[in-house]
Please model this.
Amino acid sequence: MKRTLCSFLLAVVFAAAPAHALEPAQQAELNRQLREAATVDDVDTVRRLLGEGADVNGANEYGKTALMRAVESGASKSAYVLLSKGASVNARTSAGCTALTYAAENGHADLSAMLVELGANVHDRTRSGWDAMMMAARLGYDVIVAQLFLFRPFELLRFEDAEIGDVDLRALFV
Model:
């Protein structure tokens, strides 16, 4: 019984691992193709590249991952696939940007909600000092501001500053 269980576990481990290690140039190319496919929401190609060994968190020279590219362009299907395959919701670029800051900056409320639900840090700030809520507020994405407001600890908020645009966020807590 033990021998059968060990054989089974070894088979699972080796089946999940790529048959051969990729050369660094091959890995980099797969990762680049993954970022491109995610940007245009080509879910079939995203799945194929992940199956061929692309790194779900493989970033470009600035730290931008396929998830960040998908979120930035509003490619929600690709973002979902990447997240289901283990993409990091809190990866950061060299400028401190995260998938959540890209969602907030581009008005993708569905993606920002999904990222926050999956544990994205709403307090991460870019090198410029902006967090996702600040970006969304500055650009007039009131729905995202309201989403992020609900996930911030209340002791950090002052209700006299809660009114943003046409939405009075104090009404959410009455």
User: Anything to note?
Assistant: Residues 22-173 form a domain with the Serine Threonine Protein Phosphatase 5, Tetratricopeptide repeat fold (CATH 1.25.40.20). The chain has one domain: 22-173.
